[in-house]
Structure formats: C-alpha cells, structure tokens
Amino acid sequence: MSAPTDGFALLRGASVGGLSALVTVAAHTSGGGMPPSDAAIVLLAVVSAAIGYATAAAPTPAAPRAQLLMILTAAQSVGHLLLTAVDGHHHGSMLTQQMFAAHVVAILVGALAIRGAEHGIRRAVTSLREALPLLAVLVVDESRIAPELPVYRLPGTPRLLDLSGCGNRGPPALRT
Fold it and tell me: If phi over 0 gives left and psi between -120 and 50 gives alpha, with beta otherwise, what is residue 170?
C-alpha cells in the first residue's frame, strides 16, 4: 500500500486519539481494574488527544503498520500508568496477567480497526473520484435552463409613502 496522504494522516491521528482513550479504559476495566474517576477520564482524554496529534504530525515511514502498533502500545502504556497514578488502583503499578492480555488485545483490535477505516476511506474516495465526473455529465443539462423572468415596474414614485400633497386633504366642497 502507498503511504497515506495528509488527509489519511489526520484520519489516523483522530482515530488513534479517540480509540486509545476508549480502548484503554475498556481494557483496564476488563482486566480487573476499577472504573476510572472523572479526573482520570479528563486527563486520559487530554493525553489521548496529544498522542493523536503527534500521530497525525509524524511522518509515516515505509512500515506504517509497525508505527501504528508502536503508537498504540505507547498510548496503552501511558493510559495504564495514568489510570493507575490518578485513581491509585489496587494492583499498584504492576500489571496482572489478565490486564496485560486485555491491553495487548486492545492494541491489536485498535490497529485492525484503524487500518480497516483507512482502507475503507481510501476505497470510498477512489470510487467517488471515478463516479463524480460521470454524475456531472448526467446531471448538467444546459438546454433546460429557465429563461429570465420579466421585471414589472409600477408607474409612479419609487417612495414607499407618497406624501407630496396630491389628493383630497380637506372636507368635501359645498354644492350650491
């Protein structure tokens, strides 16, 4: 596959940032950790956004899959340490085997989801590039453009209220 363009780098960064926070909490909780507090969720969101931005800004090497796995591994590690430090979970800073397995599964599932999204978007953009010129030929029919509507003007003053003094202003005239 070719290296992603800037649009795909932004997609990858947003996916890594959003998915890493969600999957870190899910893996940490399913691995035996306690659900995170509000402060931990806010800090995790900030850290995940920074990781996502760094992912989008980093140049993609010849092996984007390996880079994606390394970034997701770093995001899971930082997220685990953050959840452990902020909430002071019962297992301390050491990982249990169940939690380690949950984080590894989260890394693999996240990488597959992000690569699948990139591949799907790439195919959709390619299909649109091929279909849009055909649609433009089918939709645009210049012979059916409606003629201009005539403009009608009322004779008289262009003012909204005509206060020039014409008209009856007094009582009716007496007839004798």
Answer: beta
Helix extents (H) in the chain: 6-30, 38-57, 64-87, 97-139
Q: Give the CA radius of gyration of the chain.
A: 33
The pLDDT tens digits of the residues spanning 27-49 come to: 878 877 778 888 888 898 899 88
The residues, ordered by sequence, that sit 6+ positions from 15 with a Cβ below 8 Å of its Cβ are 52, 113, 114, 117
Contact 12, 68 (CB under 8 A): yes
Residue 170: both structure tokens together = 């007094």
Residues 29, 2 contacting (CB under 8 angstroms): no
pTM of the model: 0.62
